[in-house]
Amino acid sequence: MAEAMRTDSRRTELEPIDTSEALLVSAFRAHPVLASFDRLARSQVLTIALQRRFVSHAFTPLYDVAIDCVSDPPTKRCLREILREEYMPYERPTHREDLVQDLMTMGATWEQIVTIGPTAQTSMMIADMFAALRKQEERALFEIKVLSFLRFAGEVLVAEEYQLMWPRFCTLGLAAPGSTVGTPSAFYHPHMQHDAVTFRFSEHNRMLSRQSHSDQLTELLRCRIENKAGIACCLESVRRAAQLKAGFYDQFVESAVAGSEAQPTRG
Ligand SMILES: [Fe+2]
Ligand SMILES: [Fe+2]
Question: What is the CATH number of the domain that holds 160?
Answer without folding.
Answer: 1.20.910.10
